[in-house]
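re: that chain from earlier
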Amino acid sequence: MSTRAIGQNGPAALIFHTLLTIFIAAPLVVVMLVSFSDKAYISMPFSGASLRWYREILAAPELIRAFWLSVWLGLASATLASVVAIPAAIAVARHRFVGRDGLMALLMSPLMIPHVVLGVAFLRFFSIMEWSGSFVAMVFVHALTVVPYSLRLTLAAVIGLQRDAESAARSLGASRFVAFRRILLPLIMAGVAGGWILAFIQSFDEVTMTIFIATPGTTTLPVAIYNRLSQLTDPVTTSVSTIMIVGTMGLMFALDRIVGLDKVLIGKK
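^ sequence. v structure.
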């Protein structure tokens, strides 16, 4: 088989990829279209377009409170995840020590455990420790689940880094901390920032596990949307979902510009 044939997709592959893309994107497009409905219930098709349900968001204070809680929760958990991911990535990439593989398995394990199982486990744990409704506890739980996303990009940045500048700084008398702060950290900042953005997105959109540990005082936006859908059928939820979709697309675009989605999704250096 020629190199040209290997490097190009055939018609069948292109058709398959097109159909798969349409299948994945169609539900999102429908949600976005319904958010402009002029009807008082979720329905497609509709007779006319309206911004009514975007204005109705301002009349739903529980959604606004949940939005800001999700923002602060995402900021805190993504930052905490980055604080854990940076030293872990450096240790795994540069030091051969006993338990190196175990450390990676431990930090990446949240990807392997279903979030329903994590939700039930943390619900029981918080009940025993009397931490139910604690924002700090939710930060630690979300940070635990988003560490793998931050770690992956930070580790890729550390592995692909030349150590000449850091070695020169150490040879000139800089301490390990100074070399890290002034040389290593700026060089891997793109990977750290990309991992932080991805961790924030995952924390903000998390619903499966959060629904078990959320309380009336710590209800995140995805959980608030879920609760509203179980009680009402107005398109307010679709307008909020549209804002979340557009916001996530914006953050993914920023991630692509900072790090590159090819590095995030397939590990390309």
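The chain has one domain: 57-266.
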